[in-house]
Design goal:
Layout (H helix, E strand, L loop, with lengths): L22 E2 L8 H14 L7 H14 L3 E5 L2 H11 L5 E5 L5 H7 L4 E5 L10 H6 L5 E7 L8 H11 L2 E5 L7 E2 L2 E2 L7 E4 L12 E5 L2 H11 L20 H12 L1 H19 L5 E3 L13 E5 L7 H10 L2 E2 L14 H4 L8 H9 E4 L7 H15 L1
Parallel strand pairs: 1-13, 3-4, 3-5, 5-6, 6-9
Antiparallel strand pairs: 2-10, 7-8, 9-10, 11-12, 12-14
Helix pairs in contact: 1-8, 2-8, 3-4, 9-13
This protein binds ligand T4K.
The site of ligand T4K has 23 residues, from helix 3 and helix 4.
Length: 388
Amino acid sequence: MKTIRSAADLAINGAPPAFDEPLHVGRPNIGNIDRFNELTARMFERRWLTNNGPLVQEFENAIASRLQVKHCIAMCNGTIALEIAIRALGLSGEVIVPSWTFVATAHALYWQGITPVFADIDPVTHNLDPAAVRRMITPRTTGIIGVHLWGRAAPVEALQTIADEHGLKLMFDAAHAFGSSHRGQSIGRFGACEVFSFHATKSFNTMEGGAVTTNDDGLAEAMRLMRNFGFKGYDNVIHPGTNGKMIEVCAAMGLANLEGFEALATNSERTHATYARELAGVPGISVLAYDPVERNSHHYVVLEVAPDCPVSRDAIIAALHAENILARKYFWPGCHGMQPYRDLFPHASLLLPNTCAVAERNVVLPAGAALAESDIHAVCAAVRVLVD
Ligand code: T4K
């Protein structure tokens, strides 16, 4: 790794890149590998690999008890989990979602013939703005999906009030929020249900995987059926369904990763604090802060580049990439700027000024357990030298 002290040290000036190997956003956090090996060895002895196996059941119990929620239904990934939750809730017509989210939130609706209607966000929290949600309600609206973006809770109570007033269903995309809290309670217990992604790039992962958590017995039962083709026992299909099952290897990874999760979360919090400290006072940029009284996985370190910053956001990203620091501009340009939504709502940006502004200033920096303290110093040095 190169020590960056001046502009001449930067790869854009012909110097070698800061890192020989790329430094990624989303490098997987890996917990207790011995435990994983032990669990999978027993799995092979049992010859039970999927279809609601013992590891999946153990994993579901562990998640439900950790989040203090009645049901956890593990799934093969977060997108299928969203689709199944949406179907189990009976959503149809139009559903209000933020545009400022990973495109899976919108696709999970569109894929089932439901129109995602994009509401604007609060530019400070990056989460849905309740007033904007109200403006997007029509006679076709059946629900709202709040997203706990970057692990920060969406405005849960305000969205619930709107949903209750208009007879709408409320669910949450909690893909970023495993380990986060709202008013001191674990995310996973709000709305009709909450959907997690346990993808490899998430703070807590099962390689691929996801889950829906809910306190509603009927909803949980419907989702369990839908996850397994609608089967209730042998030869008895009582519901339309799909294949949303989590496999045993993924559950083993989840159980192994749960063991080390507290240490990983503490490390991520430290990483976030180091970035914030080292980049404080650099003109035109700021590290997005999370609520200090709530738990957040701190998995996403988000840098905001102000319009008056001497160097543009895209120039910063290009320079970092030249150093092999693969920062991302998640979730630019917002779902409304992606297909098919760009064609569906060609003028959506007029109603999404905050989304558009945030999309132009966002940079997600490498974080996670794979990063050494010295890596963070080098990334910050590169940013400081570029902007100062
Ligand atoms: N809702 C929200 C709000 C979400 O953010 C997501 C997923 C979902 C729903 C859907 O959940 P899933 O169906 O995915 O469970 C990645 C992830 O694939 C996606 O899960 C995640 N959000 C999204 C934010 O990021 P890409 O297209 O950016 O992935 P990719 O391949 O560019 O990888 C990201 C970085 O991670 C790269 O720099 C490489 C690094 N990486 C990745 C993998 C898989 C590794 O170092 N090792 C690995 O094994 O979407």
